[in-house]
Amino acid sequence: MNENEVTRLIEREKKLAKYDGPDKVVTSYEMLDFIQADKTAVREVSLKSHIPTLDAHIQDFIGGELTVVSGKTGNGKTLFAQTLTATFVKDQKQCLWFTFEVTADAFLGNFGEHMPAICMPKELRQSSLDWVEDRIDEAVLKYGRIDAVFIDHLHFLVDMGSRHNISLEIGKVMRRLKLIALHRNLCMFLMAHQKKDNLDNEPTNDDLRDSSFIAQESDNVFFIWRRQDNPSETTLKITKNRRKGVMNVKVSLEKIGHFLREPEYRNTKTWNDRD
Predict the structure, then answer these.
(1) Alpha-carbon torsion 247, 214, 59, 234, what sign?
(2) Would you report the helix, strand and coil content of the chain in percent, each value rounded to 5?
(3) 161-202, pLDDT tens digit by residue?
(4) How many CB atoms lie within 10 A of CB 81?
(5) How far is Cα 39 from Cα 61, in angstroms, rounded to an integer?
(6) In which residue ranges of the chain is CATH 3.40.50.300 found?
(7) How far is CA 87 from the centre of its chain?
(8) Strands 66-71, 95-99: parallel, antiparallel or unpaired by DSSP?
(9) Mean pLDDT, rounded, for 16-40
(10) Helices 129-143 and 166-184 sit at what angle, rounded to 10 degrees?
(11) What is the C-alpha separation between 216 and 256, in angstroms, rounded?
(12) Mean pLDDT over all residues of the chain?
């Protein structure tokens, strides 16, 4: 090592020894102090599904989490998301929807007579996360806060005609959505397609279409399917829950009115009739 290299090394070490930037290295005790200070400064976001068995296992959805809901086409992904939306709004939470899958008229009509007050763009733009991020910030500025964002569905955010590796492109989208949820302290809900080559078996995270990054970047992964002999009866399966470590728990649901309910609790005080 020559004299110039030694000088640069000494200067670097002096600079690092005095470094006080936001990413500086601290002790675990200092980190706890920072965390406690943030908790008092940042609004807590905690959303209950009011589906008793689901809440018993995952407790709640919290700000910064990314939740993926998957399943076969027409098996209740959007219905489950709309059920959560109605529940959150009743709990005085603010929701923003990007409903690429169906028209706004059909989407709003599915809520029935008691349509909740939610936010949504007047027009939609595909394959642009910058646009999605702008609409979220716009909604916060106009309406004070956004607690939950619903995107139906993932593949409308991906340029399917791109020559790049589609799995990597989806991975980039997933990571960006996770960061949006973290930085804005909101709950992100994303509908995603299931592979078509395993529709007859009970799904796992390997059945998410086009990319393993969908499960890897998510905090929660749910699959939903209807009984073939009775389409009103639905099963929700938790295949991933990062915070509580829940896996392979199933919740039986039934479509009653315009939303999904847990039938066992319809006659108890936890039963939320939204119609």
Answers:
(1) negative
(2) 40, 20, 40
(3) 777 799 999 999 999 999 999 999 999 999 999 988 766 789
(4) 25
(5) 17
(6) 45-265
(7) 16
(8) unpaired
(9) 87
(10) 20
(11) 33
(12) 91
Rounded Cα–Cα distance for residues 252 and 237 (Å): 9
Q: Is the Cβ–Cβ distance between 272 and 256 less than 8 Å?
A: no
Tell me how far CA of residue 139 lies from CA of 23, 133, 231, in angstroms.
Answer: 30, 10, 36
* DSSP secondary structure of 223-263: EEEE-SS-TTEEEEEEEEETTT---SEEEEEEEETTEEE-G
At 89, give phi and psi (nearest 5°): -65, -40
pTM (2 d.p.) = 0.86
Please state, in angstroms and rounded to a whole number, the distance separating the CA atoms of residues 211 and 155: 11
Helix (H, G, I), strand (E, B) or coil at 96: strand
234 close to 254: Cβ distance less than 8 angstroms: yes
CATH number of the structural domain 45-265? 3.40.50.300
User: pLDDT of 138-169, one tens digit each?
Assistant: 999 999 999 999 999 999 999 877 777 999 99
Tokens of 48: 């209950």
Q: Tell me the CA distances in angstroms from 59 to 43, 54, 116, 241, one per residue in order.
A: 18, 7, 24, 11
Long-range contacts (CB closer than 8 Å, 24 or more residues apart) made by 87-93? 87/48, 87/49, 87/50, 87/272, 87/274, 88/47, 88/147, 88/148, 89/116, 89/117, 89/118, 90/116, 90/272, 90/274, 91/47, 91/48, 91/50, 93/47, 93/147, 93/148
d(CA 256, CA 236): 15
Give the contacts of 228 (CB within 8 A, at least 6 positions apart): none
From the list 55, 110, 117, the residue with the least C-alpha distance to 79 is 110
Length reported for the chain: 275
